[in-house]
Amino acid sequence: MPSVVIVGTQWGDEGKGKIVDALAARADVVVRFQGGDNAGHTVYSGDKKYVFHILPSGILRPGVMCVIGGGVVVNLSKLVGELKAIQVPETQWRRCLRISGEAHLILPCHIAMDQAAEARRGASRIGTTLRGIGPAYADRAARIGVRMADTLNAGWFRTQVRACLDAKRGCLSKSQVREVCDVDRVVKEMLALARPFAGVIADTGQLLAEARRKRKKILFEGAQGTMLDVDEGTYPYVTSSHTIAGGVCVGAGVGPHDIDRIIGVAKAYTTRVGAGPFPSELKDTTGATLRRIGGEYGATTGRPRRCGWLDLVQLRRAVRLNSLDEIVLTKLDVLDGFDRIGVGVAYRVGGRRVTEWPANPADIRKVKPEWEYLPGWKCSTAGIRTFAKLPPAVRHYIKTLEKRLNVPITMISAGKDRSQLIIRKPVF
Ligand code: IMP
Q1: What is the pTM of this model?
Q2: Which residues are catalytic?
Q3: Is the pLDDT of residue 61 over 90?
């Protein structure tokens, strides 16, 4: 049975939540392996909208085991709030949710540090989600982080929290230190929040090995996107985890041979939220139209997303970095009304034409995309369920992308609902 990875190929917000939710219907296990509540995975079921920030998107499917891996940073109060909001009974989530003991906690001091760092950066701020993600991962690397398993022993937990908070005192203002570095208060609050999860903390790497041995269908759900990877993305305008498929192994505790299929999710145009390079950004009315029709406002922060046409130079990089076997194209219906559809096929930089992402970060800021325009189709694609029934101009658009990217597009999402999905090659 396959273990399948789903990753974002752009700057996040590609519509991964809907795809994971659709696939979770046939999966046995859904795993988050990186990120934290900076993610916002939106799932529509009937007329109900759910946004998952920390829970795996399979949580709505009874019988699916949902795993939060060791590579995730967990804000316990957000996790509690999310479980309440989706109204899954406690007896159900106790049965189907497992959290790695290795997952690091986001403490109030991490959120304060994130806010302080962004304020210090001023005009050159990253535009983080202010959820404490970067500082929590920084503490992990500095070996002063606090982990889920630490909550199982109050004395040990206190030692770890103290070490973590002591390191923050010089970095925050006096009032912030009073607010977020009080060891007694933080220990008390965190242990109270962690108590209901004591029975779900597990060695999730072992659990996944066992699931694979039993030939279970496992789905690894990436958060953010390739271009936000801490190493391979548009550094320093990135998140602090490994968002690419390689992140699955370290973030979920599985070996490279335990992955069978890697699927990249690409929106039919490009968006980015927060600062940083975005070669195919359109700052004109076309960009504003994409934002309006696509409802491009952050699921986590509500910020308007920057919009532009598809960028094949960037996508080819994503294909290579993730070893993509196939692509799922989302939000196709957003393009329905356009006379022509732009596609960035190369970049111009300093009078040169380049077809690869520039190695020099200074060049990424200067590149200008070379556009090719494909004919629009000017009709609704939202209700269409088979590839053959798509208008010829859509099929031409999709085949052009497949040829240029050298990867098959095996699923097409046109519309918000679970059912609005064309499946050309079933996953499970
Ligand atoms: P952080 O992950 O909160 O540290 O934010 C770092 C960068 O990643 C910022 O540009 C955020 O806007 C971006 N980011 C983080 N999570 C997401 C996401 O789920 N979708 C899109 N962008 C994200």
Answers
A1: 0.96
A2: 13, 41
A3: no
